[in-house]
Amino acid sequence: MAEKIGVMLCGHGSRDVDAIREFTVLADHLKRRLPQFEVESGFLEFATPIIKTGLDALKDKGVSRILAVPGMLFAAGHVKNDLPWEINSFAAANPDIDVRYGRELAIDPKLLAASRQRIEEAEGLGQAGVERKDTLLMVVGRGTNDPDANSNIAKVARMLWEGMGFGWAEIAFSGVAHPLVDQGLERAVKLGFKRIIVFPYFLFTGILVKRIHDWTDAAAKAHPEVEFLKAPYLNDHPLVVDSFIERVGEILDGEARMNCQLCKYREQVVGYEASVGAVQAGHHHHVRGIGTDADHGHDHGHHDHDHGHHGHGHAYRPHRHHNHD
Length: 325
Prior knowledge:
By secondary structure, the chain is an alpha/beta fold. Helices cover 38% and strands 14% of the residues.
């Protein structure tokens, strides 16, 4: 009898209904691309089903092995702590099921190619005649309390800058890390470029992406001499779906190895020495499955957990006092 394998797509979760809808569309892509497996999905916080519900659904379908894939771009606290805690707790309670945990999407040639296409979409809507040498690209990350994850945004920006031939590139973050988008744009306009393209390096929409757009609109109003373009986020670009399929394959092949060279929990990274060896534990009990804005019938505005459980959508604060993303 053939082994029955399940795939668990683990999402962050959001209060934003549009973000949950887009994640569900991605999960549907995986179901179509992986007909040989049972596929379920769940969220760390706010939205339902929660991750345990998805894992239990796979168990009820009689799978003997579960391949758990983080539905996230970079490995910060959620990928390094919260998701492993959820997965390990389920595995401990179900020793007869072989549960394996994959790696985040990370910096990947497919994602860079998808990013290029998203940026080109924005360029196609801009004024004619503006060359890339006269354009500044701003790549915006979620922002975490993990310097390794934040530094990945700088690498993505540099690779797109060189690969696409922009005149300059800057990075900014939607919360927790510095500079925030509004601060970054105020500095960027001083460099004198005719056009600034703001590219949210995000998988899905949500309160944070909408905030990035608001900041961009405000900068455009304040600086009419500069053309501001808002590039679409990655969403369910076919190359993004391909990357998730690759991550599943890595788990099957036993090749899912996370990059730990600059992990603040394993190495004494400058400024984060106290984080080494921190206990792995989940941190989303208070918001697990409590619902989205649609469930509560009101808008929480900018107070959201989308980017980490210590940031909560407020302005930048020094992050060396926090141990987890």
